[in-house]
């Protein structure tokens, strides 16, 4: 059975300021919404602040540019292209700012770096380490990956220790279940490379849709089970979470004194596991949202490798979608509260491990 391999794009940079803001919207067009806290989706507009654990979702005509806060040691921006799902999270115990690309594509510009902490752009396939560069990360409907660097150099590393370098004139590709490989191109033809790659991978997906659906059906059921278990564990601490929400909405999240130390001891393990399962399941869930849309366009009719009809599986996903989307948003809000409470009371994340 083919395995999905975690992709991380590593950029050495200082952590953002202690506040929750990680950037600001400098340009937007088309349908772009932001999911924050426990609110309804917010239309994204010019000048809107982007906070950690905000989920940005672009429609088929949506496009948004987020400028990073220079206080964090990086002068640059991320362009989130149409049909993408994206968020930013600070992981202070690992000295990392993580950019999660759940679907679609982003173009990252890093103009100035400071400090020795990491910025990680995660998707499926490899780990790319860069220092002062411009590069684009593109994912296909089937989970394939293309990294195109137009300035500087990007080190692409897999979990198995394989390494390849993306640089001007040499892209790096990883298809699901395969090794990294380099793709040579003329710099003036970079746009043609990206466009042709997306077209070719879409054709491959259409030709092998039952196999792609089979892979994600297995991942969906495996990771949903793990996420549900972690979510139930969170609900056993509902009284504490409700108190965080009450204080947050009253502007009193930083109150509590010694309570924060007790929460750190009692809840850190629960929250670490929950965050892990949140990210793992989100990658599958938002990819499936994309696949389901193609199913309704006539792609993927047939059977899974288990013999189950793809239509039956799609019906299950759609039946569970509203509740799962609500749970994912709630967990992101709880993670945001947990992190902010730790920073305000302890000067560090409550997830910090001694």
From TrEMBL:
<dbReference type="Pfam" id="PF04773">
    <property type="entry name" value="FecR"/>
</dbReference>
<feature type="domain" description="FecR protein">
    <location>
        <begin position="56"/>
        <end position="154"/>
    </location>
</feature>
<dbReference type="InterPro" id="IPR006860">
    <property type="entry name" value="FecR"/>
</dbReference>
<protein>
    <recommendedName>
        <fullName>FecR protein domain-containing protein</fullName>
    </recommendedName>
</protein>
